[in-house]
Amino acid sequence: MRACQQRVNARLWAAVGSPSAGYSDGTLSEAMTYACAGSGKRIRPLLAYASALAVGGSIERADAAATAVELIHCYSLVHDDLPAMDDDDLRRGKPTVHKAFDEATAILVGDALQALAFELVAASGNGVGPEQRLGMVSCLASAAGAQGMVGGQALDFAAVGEQQSVEQLQQMHNLKTGALIRAAVSLGALSHAATSPAQLAALDDYAAKLGLAFQVRDDILDEISDTATLGKPQGSDSSANKPTYLSLLGLDAARAKAEELAAEAVEALNDFDDRATPLRQLAQYIVARLH
Q1: pLDDT, tens only, 39-98
Q2: pLDDT score recorded for residue 108
Q3: Which CATH number is 194's domain given?
Q4: How far apart are CA 64 and CA 117, in angstroms?
Q5: Which of 141, 170, 140, 143 is nearest to 155 (CA)?
Q6: Beta-strand (E) ranges in the chain?
Q7: How many CA atoms does the CB half-sphere of 146 hold within 13 Å?
Q8: How many CB atoms lie within 10 A of CB 288?
Q9: How many other β-carbons are positioned within 10 Å of the β-carbon of residue 26?
């Protein structure tokens, strides 16, 4: 995990922070770097790398996928934190981008990071062929747009103060959180030309279960952890009157649900050999993490 985190951090720096990136506006470049730096867990890049290994691919060929999916994630956090959305002041243990800079800069940072993600996936190199890259662009676009992450955020915004069923909450999180996690796993697998449709289907099943497990654990941590550990305001969902798995199920049932989903995710990998061990370990990590 540490090796892959360091690897994607270096590629994020090369894409947004290094002088060779060549951005004309210094403030925008600084704010883009600020948005991507810090103590992020890099779960989505880790999943992309682990998925590539599971199908017999390589870390090197998954670099663009891993970096791009983290850029989309970072952009989403910048926009989610804006005053018009969640209006948060703290992210990853430091002031949010609109607080550290200003609101207009934060909007532009999100726009720039999203565009850069697609630029990286579409670019040639690392042995990923043009047909693979086209499939990866399509996968990332579907996950990031109105049928994925953005659509889920819209449902989340509309749910504030409303009564929700577990099924409605699951639908929202399948889009808001799950879509990008599924994309991370698919993108890693797609970076390997020999990945079969059956492998892609099994990996998508794994990722769908894992995405929900991730969100259930997030809801638990939002309630039982503290701001210093989380790196963002503790209890922000409950204070905003948002429905969560914890508010609907209770703590014990939510914990059981997260563990059940993680077990189902691992079960989806039954036809994979030991090369999928990192994916199996990540499923356990996600439901045991403390932030």
Answers
A1: 678 999 999 999 999 999 999 999 999 999 999 999 999 999 999 998 899 888 899 999
A2: 96
A3: 1.10.600.10
A4: 8
A5: 170
A6: 90-91, 94-95
A7: 0
A8: 11
A9: 8
Tokens of 101: 């800079």
Cα(284)–Cα(104) distance, rounded to whole angstroms? Answer: 39
Report in angstroms the alpha-carbon separations of 181 from 18, 26, 140, 185: 27, 32, 10, 6
Which helix (H) or strand (E) covers residue 198, if one does? helix 197-224
d(CA 74, CA 16): 12
Tell me which residue range forms the domain holding 195: 2-288
Take residue 149 and report the two structure tokens written for it.
Answer: 């992450």
Q: What is the DSSP string of 40-66?
A: ---HHHHHHHHHHHHTT--TGGGHHHH
Report the pLDDT value the prediction gives residue 147, as an integer from 0 to 100.
94
pTM listed for this prediction: 0.93
Alpha-carbon dihedral sign for residues 117, 5, 193, 198? negative
Q: Which residues contact 107 (CB under 8 A, 6 or more apart)?
A: 79, 82
Task: Answer whether 104's CB lies under 8 Å from 28's CB.
Answer: no
Specify the residue for token string 């990866």: 136
The region that residue 253 occupies, defined by phi over 0 for left and psi between -120 and 50 for alpha, beta otherwise, is alpha
pLDDT per position as a tens digit, 239-259: 667 788 888 889 999 999 999
Domain tally, the chain: 1
What CA–CA distance (Å, rounded) separates 189 from 187? Answer: 5
Euclidean distance between CA atoms 223 and 121, whole angstroms: 37
pLDDT of residue 291: 75
* Ranges in the chain, pLDDT < 50: none
Cα–Cα distance between 213 and 229 in angstroms, integer? 20
Between the CA atoms of 75, 80, 84 and 87, what dihedral angle is there, to the nearest 10 degrees? -120
